[in-house]
Amino acid sequence: MVDFHDNVSGDGVGGGEFGDYLYDNGIGDGVGEGEFGDDCYDNGTGDGVGEGEIGDDLYCPNSVDDMSLDMCVPPMSPIRDGQCSNVIEYRSPIKTVVSTNRDVEKYYKQYGEQEGFGVSRVQATKLKVTNERLTTTWKCECWGAPNMRAKREAKNRAKSMDVAGCGDKVNGVIGADKLSRGKRKLKKCECGATIYVGVNAKGDWEVRKVINVHTHDVNPSMSKLVKEYRMKNYTANVKKVLLNFYEEGVYVSKICKGLLHEKEEEEFPSFKDMQHEVYKAKRLKFEGGDANPMMTYFEWMQEDNQNFYHTHRLDEFGRLKDVLCVDARSRAAYEYFGDVVCFDATYLTNQYELPFVNFVGVNHHGQSILLGCALVSRETTETYKWVFQQWLACMENRAPVAILTDQAALMRNAVAQTMPTARHRWCIWYIVKKFSEKLGKCKGFKDFKSPLKAIIYESFTVEEFDRRWCECMKKFSLEDNEWLVGLYEERHMWIPAFMREYFWVRMKTTQRVESINNFFDGFVNRKMKLCEFPMRYTRAMTKRVQDENEADAKATKYIRRLVSGFRHEAFFQKIYTDAKFQEIQRELSRLM
């Protein structure tokens, strides 16, 4: 990029790279040569020669005042062959002397965007007393050696040990691990493109040095690879859409795809840019800790509705240990649908390793409803006992008639201590699921697997189950299997034949909890922060309320036709919801 200026009345020659403004204002011959920043002026009437960088005392007293704005402004370089034709050439308002260094930075970044390279501020000097900045250096973002970061990290490791990088030192230089070099792509290639400015005696900023030679290919189309230039299209409206949709549970990838339909991909922030903006927005909420915003939100919800219940406890170091919350609608639903409760602690564990446990019931539409939830630090009998006690306290100490959990001795002990009157049942699905793991190596496993399941599910009475179970154990020589012996001793906890005198709302497994877990997918995940939990929980509950209201509206507006000639069908049609009436029709159809 060469830009020669000749401002003489006779012959004039100027040579240099972009930004060379080597002016000869003489009447005779004038020659000027040097880099951007050369400030060598000759205002004589004869021959005039000036050469050198800024700082050379080769100023003519009247030369700067006589110079016009166009003479002080270096134009942008012309478009090279093969570059994008839509690049607009413009002239920056920057002069050799400006009021602030931000003007230089703005100009250099505009130039970098047009040419296709990024700009980094790499060095600055300040006064120790007033902290005023004296000099600033900007470079191409590809400045520095490719292994600069590895060397810096290796030096930090070498402070605590004599082994760093590749394990030793070569000629006194700490090396980097050769095997890890290929794990990270680098853009550093020791590019020397630089602009250097400093404060002069008058307090103004002046350009002192410019090096405009890159050691890598530069093309205007590469500007889209620089995040700073892409983020110019990250407007306040785009930010609002991104954060609002993310708070509603929409993944960043889907939000990004939706926004790309409105703008060209090359002119819009990338998916990683969007993720970083979401991360920065989330990080602002962590001030004062991660748990404090969550508790503040719970307190705000309790002030808004006195029936909202939450409680927590801390460990000996003052850190959050366990937290339980039950919203007002869950407490009201428990009064009507609290006969049978399903409790599960297998949903997920977030980054703090806090299991998300749920109390789940069934409403009049056959839908799973959430009756409370908790985040617990440890799965122990003492922890579950605290959760059950606090949950019963907010439910006016009215224990459910029956409770369903997984096969865990910790839960069994906690239920026995806090809800002794409730009929406790194990989830049969978890037990049957372990057949392959526990019995897969037994001889004839494929032969007795199906008969064993038939005995479990199809035995109508306790006596029938005992008889068929013993016959199966004897037939396949399984009397000495410790796992099956243990299950048989605890058969009253999971065999359906022992549960027929109790009302279970068609629940024999923790499938109701799994339904709730599917419902929370999209709102709660493993990467969720504690401060995000109450807001996600509230949005999930709002969605569940909308589903229930929609089912109520459909049951009221639409009437399902009768399919049999039984008199009782019309009676059930009036008193049951549509979901439960369909169950009645299926039973009646079997009698037809």
Known CATH architecture of the largest domain = 2-Layer Sandwich
- The shape is elongated
Q: For the CA atoms, what is the radius of gyration?
A: 38 Å
Report low-confidence residues grouped into runs of 5 or more: 1-94, 162-167
Class of secondary structure makeup: alpha+beta
**Which sequence of strands runs across the widest sheet?**
11-12-15-14-13-16-17
CATH topology of the largest domain: Nucleotidyltransferase, domain 5
Report, as a whole number of angstroms, the end-to-end distance. 93 Å
Helix content: 25-40%
Number of domains: 6
Mean pLDDT across residues: 74
- Total helices: the number is 21
**Beta-strand residue percentage:** 5-15%
CATH class of the largest domain: Alpha Beta
Characterize the biggest β-sheet. 7 strands, mixed
How many strand segments?
Answer: 17
Q: How would you explain this protein's 3D organization?
A:
- Mean pLDDT is 74; it is low at 1-94 and 162-167.
- The strands form four sheets. The chain has a seven-stranded mixed β-sheet, sandwiched between helices. It has a five-stranded antiparallel β-sheet with strand order 4-10-9-6-5, covered by helices on one side.
- The chain is elongated, with a radius of gyration of 38 Å.
- Helix 6 (236-247) packs antiparallel against helix 7 (252-260), helix 11 crosses helix 12 (409-418) and helix 15 runs antiparallel to helix 16.
- It has 592 residues and is α+β, with helices and mostly antiparallel strands.
- The protein contains 21 helices and 17 strands.
- It folds into six domains: 1-75, no CATH class; 97-157 and 185-223, no CATH class; 227-286; 291-427 and 507-544, Nucleotidyltransferase, domain 5; 430-493; 559-589, no CATH class.
- The chain is 38% helix and 15% strand.
